[in-house]
Amino acid sequence: MDIVGLLKTMTLVEKLGQLSQYASAWLDTSLDSPLTGPKSQIKLTDEEYTAIGSTFSFKNATVMKKLQEQHLKNDPKKIPLLFMDNVVHGYRTIYPVPLGMSATFDVELVEECCAMAAKEAVTAGVHVTFAPMVDVSRDARWGRCVESAGEDPYLNSEMGRAQVRGYQGNMDPSKNIAACVKHYAAYGQAEAGRDYNTTDMSERTLRDFYLPAYQATVDEDVRMVMTSFNALNGVPSSGNKWLVKDILRDEWGFDGVVISDFKAFDEMRTHGYCETESDCAEKAMNATSDIEMMSACYFRTIPALIEQGKLSMQQIDEAVLRVLKLKEELGLFENPYSFASEEESEKVCLCAEHRALAKKAVVKSAVLLKNENILPFDKNKAKRIAVIGPFGDYNGLDQWACRGRNEDVVTVLQGIKNLLPNKEIVFARGCGDEINATDCSDIEAAVATAKSCDTVILCVGERADFSCEGKSRMELRLSKAQKTLINEIVKVNKNTAVVLYTGRPLVLTDCIDDMPALMTAWLPGTEGGNAIAELLFGDENFSGKLSMTFPRSEGQLPISYNAYKTGRPLLNEDNWARGFVSCYFDMPNTPLFSFGYGLSYTDFEISVPEINKTEMNSGETLTVSVKVKNIGKRNGETVLQLYICDEFASLVRPIKELKGFKKIELKPNEERAVSFEITEDMLKFWSANGKFEAESGSFRVWVSDVSTATENVRFVFSK
Ligand code: NOJ
To answer: What digits encode the pLDDT tens for the residues 88-100?
Structure first.
């Protein structure tokens, strides 16, 4: 298709249509009523309505085909609609939420899962997914941390890249979809963890921690970028020219489509940054934001802005061309219905192969946080098993579980029954799953059940609808009823393992001592129960590591292992109450569980790291290696994590920063040397000169299986 030629034939309204996106329910003429639909809600004319270029959130292939047909019939230019959706952790076969997937530290697995999700989504006619989300999240109060890869910029970058590779593949429209990285930028640092709240940060914090993951996905050739709701240092992202035009496009070379978040152009008025829709449109277009989602500032006001000479037709044309180019790349002009097919959906979605991959993802993402010789349970000894708790038979799915269905979800109860069909398995809910559940009246019956069993699986946590967008929480503790349940159950049966369902790190300080064993399953999706059963009974081993710190208290938030150093660090945690150092008077600085932490059913011995030279010049590399040995009795995987600290620099540097990781599997007694190459790029940071550079001086290096490792080596870098 000659898209440049096509552009020349388009009217301004037709061009603005390509830059406007509305939810599918608004496009379905049969659904339009005085209360719904773009004509009534934002008063689009028939011509504008016909010109709309893209839509999102649609149910299935039938709806896609119906909307496309309706559109092509009316559109004189026959430019197909582009269909987008939130395919975030699976389309119909749902694997764990992104926070859980990042705990796998397994980029190949993440890529494979995204490729599976794309394959399913393609059968419904999806062209673009609003994923990956790479907002670095250091505040568990913020409900959207569930959508991210947690607190680390490097892990977010690697997970973001893997997702882009998985969704986009070779951009073969029969199995791949375009990715749209979001939410650019620094949305994860919403003040006080309150969603949509403002973000204020220095350029160095932005560059050191928050921007790298977006840039990594741009380097991976992500096709779209979604700007964020928040204002960054006073400027809402949709109209932030510095962020979008100067950094994203001019500095990083992004030439794909930029889309706003839901109604975010218009919300620049509510922010108090723009007074009129016209002001919103002018700022957004000058920032090179292409598609406006769910408001109509472009439609309403760009014609006049062009007439007044405030915007040029060239700006509009460039934006439209970017959208048309994406449509062309996705093959829409030749095949507007793409590969949408109900029959294919039936075949592909939830097929055995996809369920198996989703199960593997749950196994790899689960993190064993505590184990006082309880796990794995012995299948032979377990005669009567109790599954207890509000999450024991829970099939909830979160907001971004796309077209996943509750009835497809394998609960823990079901998973245990599937694994051990000949055992006696009993269930007691114990208490409700409400956020502040206080009703303990069912606990007595649950206690009696626990007493009558030799093995107890106690499932607690927070519901899937307590995290995600708009779901910030101030208190991250389990409800009073759940805490009482844990306490009472363990009193009568110590052979209890707690399974935590959660979309964020929770504060477990006041109940962790009661738990003989604890694993977090995150929000595991369709195959949760089967995988959890296999982990608990030892058919599978744990290998997940936390991608986000579990704090002791909400008062520690925001918290991350890679904080900047202070002049008065707390060097000895035992001395935490002594004052006049950077600490709390009433609680240790350390979290309950650190970034990178996670146990296994086997043990690994890791040697002190060694380096091949103590001096490294600019342009050279250096190798750091450790020997790792499985000293336990079973096969196991662990994640070796490379951390670096720049000891003295022109600006204060973090205590340590993750710069690499490798997941390795070892048989009992097997030992392997694992090495990482340190490059000059790994030493770079946003320096006092306002650019990324490595500075001469000394660096410390750790290689271990947790961020709190102490053994390190030192080298000197010279420019
Ligand atoms: C709002 C959310 O912030 C964003 O993540 C999502 O992709 C869009 N709505 C579209 O559903």
So the answer is: 999 999 999 999 9
